[in-house]
Design goal:
Layout: H1 3-14, H2 16-40, H3 53-67
Helix pairs in contact: 1-2, 1-3, 2-3
Amino acid sequence: MDKKLLMKAITDKVGREKGIEMVMQAYNTELITTWIARIEANKPLGGPQRHDHLGDALERVSEVCKLAP
């Protein structure tokens, strides 16, 4: 699903401010998870592979919002 559509669905469900806050927290979690995994594996933090942390964060928050009645 498109990032804009996911964000719209989230903000429709929980409101604009809360939606932004939830996605920002999920984004930070995605970044930290990636960093910890690379540090534990003793890999450099930069690399040729780029991961879509924002897309993953939006999907996580969207899934949680779908669980709520």
